What we know:
- The chain is α+β, with helices and mostly antiparallel strands.
- The protein contains eleven helices and nine strands.
- α1 (3-27) packs antiparallel against α2 (35-46), α1 packs parallel to α4 and α2 (35-46) runs antiparallel to α4.
- The protein is rod-shaped, with a radius of gyration of 45 Å.
Amino acid sequence: MSILHAIESVRAEFQRTLRAVLEEAGKNAAAGGGPGGIESLRVRFLGRKGQVTALMARLKEASAEERPQVGKALNQLRQEIEEGIQKTQDSLEALACEEELRSEWVDITLDLERRPLGSLHPLTRIQYDLEDAFTSMGFEVLDGPHVETDYFNFEALNIPAHHPARDMQDTFYLEDGNLLRTHTSPIQVRGMMRLRPPFKIIGPGKVFRCERIDASHEVTFHQLEGMMVDRDIKVAHLIYFGKALLSRIFKKEVEVRLRPGYFPFVEPGFELDIRCLICGGPGCQVCKGVGWVELLPCGLIHPNVLRSGKIDPEEYSGFAFGLGLDRLVMMKFQIDDIRHLHSADLRFLKQFP
Length: 353
Ligand code: FA5
């Protein structure tokens, strides 16, 4: 075969082999037809023992007249093969890259299965809301222990041993003589011992009483104590803060009434009641048929209590209140039984997202 024919035959063989490599690549870009296949093509045609190198060696067979034409044809063939291999290699690499990207592709716009989120218990929500409201009015938030001494729960609050007022709050006593606090008022005493007048504090927390449970009574419930001590504190200050508190909670006008109430630690003492928001007045199981719900027992701090806190009652006076948080939540969200609040029943809790 003449050398020019041999050049044509190598060109045709290269085209065939290249097509086969591309076909294989179409089936599996990353494997056989990929860069590995191309490399064998390079060796077969351009390598030291390759077909183009063999043709170059045959150049001397051509006559002096033919040699420039044969040389040109050989160079053209080598260039065509080099370019063909390079182009194919580039597109195979791009194909493999695309394949890899496709296998790793994540659709970030896909809607994932939503995990149900928990939410704050309505009691916690009200407590946080009140803490915000009172701190914005300059009150400090204090805490106290659930297990109290007789002194802080009773004695310092003007309720000495054998005082009949102890019966107003059925108490869980512990074997060591301590007790579970029956109200948040011990926080008042701890506050007076820590702070010097003038001061304003609130003390939210759990309290415990050995009670018969019904729609409005629990054994464990929540109160929020409030107290302000300064010179010349009067009932008008108490009424102002009581109203500020209720309008913050209910975010609407609510009907209230102030009536005398007896608590040994205040003088005078009051009960601030709110018109029952469950029945609106005619009476229901929550308001026990009277149309009003006790919400904010309060009064001016008794001089004996100020003395327990090492505060001179001749110089300072103050008001205090003890808000029942559970009943407040019941009024706000129209819950007709206090037991729902502690039931941990998801059907109930999901109503407060
Ligand atoms: C007291 O506990 C006083 N320490 C409040 C106080 C503080 C008066 C400062 C004056 C000055 P009382 O026992 O009334 O008061 O309880 C206060 C509030 O707690 C009640 O108005 C009511 O809303 C709530 N409460 C009382 N007992 C229960 C109960 N068993 N379950 C749910 N809430 C209750």
